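User: Can you write out an input/output pair for a complex, sequences first and structure second?

Assistant: Here is one pair. Inputs:
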Amino acid sequence: MAKKNTILICNGAACISSGEERIKEKLINKLSEKNLTEEVDIIETGCMGPCQFGPLMIVYPEGSFYIKLNEDKIARIVEEHLLKGRPVKEFTWATPESRRIGEEKKQLPFFEKQFKIVLSNCGRIDPDSIEEYIGTGGYEALGKVINEMTPEQVIDEIYKSGLRGRGGAGFPTGLKWKFAREASGNEKYVICNGDEGDPGAFMDRSICEGDPHAVIEGMEIAGYAIGANQGYIYIRAEYPLAVKRLQNSIQQAKKYGLLGKNIFGSSFNFDIEIRMGAGAFVCGEETALIASVEGKRGMPRPRPPFPANHGLWDKPTIINNVETLANIRHIIIKGSNWFNSIGTEKSKGTKVFALSGKVNNTGLVEVPMGITIKELIFNIGGGIPNNKKFKAVQIGGPSGGCIPENSIDVPVDYESLTNLGVIMGSGGLIVLDEDNCMVNMAKFFLDFTVDESCGQCIPCRAGLRQMYNILNRITRGKGELEDIDRLEKLSNIIKKTSLCGLGQTAPNPILTTLKTFRDEYIEHIVEKKCRAHVCRFEDAEVKDKDEKILKVS
Amino acid sequence: MVNIKIPDNPQYQALTLTLKTLKRKRGPTIEALHRAQEIFGYIPEEAMYLISKELGVPVSTIYGIVTFYHFFRTESIAKYLVNICQGTACHVKGADKILRIVSDELGIKVGETTPDNLFTLSTARCFGCCGLAPVMIVNEDIYGNLTEEKAVEVLREYKKKEENN
Ligand SMILES: Cc1cc2nc3c(=O)[nH]c(=O)nc-3n(C[C@H](O)[C@H](O)[C@H](O)COP(=O)(O)O)c2cc1C
Ligand code: FES
């Protein structure tokens, strides 16, 4: 018998912490109280996106999107909607227009501008069920490549799609695979980078928790393409739920013969092991990550040699980001031309962003490349709360920078962002309003990179520390105008001479804020004033990060 | 090698058993440390020696790894680990104020434990629920959209629970 209603409850991390478990229990109890258990299907899904409004659920067939649920609301929804068939409008997230149209979700500005490829299953299927994944066409792409395509054809298809790495640098994925395919040796590895160390970013977490099989399928296809039989997923220990879901998915896939030996009855073998990180930002950098997978301290090393030739255990290895891998199956099934038609000239497809900070709708969104920052923040994000004034948006985390108001019409693609001096990064977008101080933000990021520097190379280890000390002085009203020159000089040296990406990008937040918010720096130095009222000048004691290190002159 | 006595109790027996299977894997050290921290709540010196012995990795290397990664602790923790996110999203929403008030409420600084051994105060860089910033985690329970008042209230609930026990 077909069930009368299907309920999707968001089981993403944010909703869990807003009390999803309690809501689900209440729902189950209430349903059985009303003898409705047989008529309603409850599916727990991954992140639906609008985390701000959790706990969330959608009731089908009406598509009523209930937000900010509590136990009383559940009781009413069961009695009114599920028993009598009358959706409780005042509990749904809807605009007047969307109320008129049947499916509310589609009409909300938050969803309207989104385009879901990677997140197409997140919030729609039960991530713990391989059957549901297969029901959405899961593992079809793997079957197709094994049965119908040569590894070279797979690489060619990915190359033609224009897919670029979503982990930060935007390197063409097809090309990376080609190098690894052509590297000599028959022991090769695929590593999935799920380190996501950039604070304020939760895209990869949500993908691993919401659609774990897509990551596994992407890795298997990569393995087939480059000729690897072993993959590793490197994931943060801070994401226990993602680890659990991935582990469960690996076991399910093995049971179905979709992972392990003789996949789809072919001679292709591929196995996946999970390795947990241990809280070191630098381990997101690929050579450090390799060291960490090997069980060592996560120290980066100079490149070349690149991992495609000398990677894990010195064997040819590709490292791809979670989101990059989650795109693969869609490209294989729908074709490179389809993927190629989305986005801008040089940046194809979509990008997942994590919206947070001073914005009304925080959460997870996926948009076509080329959308403007303004649309992201003001349409999808719903603008700035409490009638405050937008100031800037921080993109790319500690390696990125700030985009000020006069640049928010810029399209989101790799080149346009690089031209602004920022980077796409992995997709964290943190919105700042007039109550945030830009000098304080710069100091905040340096505090982070100083702590996370692995300490091997001097520019990064000692230089960043000096920059931090200078910024610390400025934010305490002890700065001098020459400090600004010192910051710029140090930034340029550190960018040019650091060993790895961490040091090479760490000055970005300072350089981008110095460019547009120079007057704020000067205000702090000359007038001892912080217009956002964040910095405190009264307690005058200035402690340096490490007193023992010599001061710059 | 320093003569260090490895205690013979169920915890160390469990670790020894885990190490026997881990040994077969390639590069198992970090995983071994994760298991040890799961068992003890932190990584005691004796555990480092045991791992060193079982995996055949110098104890200096193990110590180097433990101190490199923020996730590993070398001090025991109290019953409740209060972890306050200082990540970017939480920072812009006033996470420093939350930290200050919690520190005042508990009367300890970051890294310290209250004399009654109930709370250890710690900070983290992003739990990945930035949509709910500012965020605090007590053991496994996540508290989001915090205000200073709400944070204090949460801690007092824990205290009350303990008093009633
Ligand atoms: C300091 C630093 C941190 C990084 N952190 C991450 C990360 O958390 N996740 C990620 O996917 N890539 C990260 N990267 C980029 C990786 O080194 C690598 O370029 C990426 O994983 C490649 O995958 P892609 O081509 O699919 O993007 C980081 C790079 C640097 C320099
Ligand atoms: S920055 Fe605090 S949870 Fe992400």
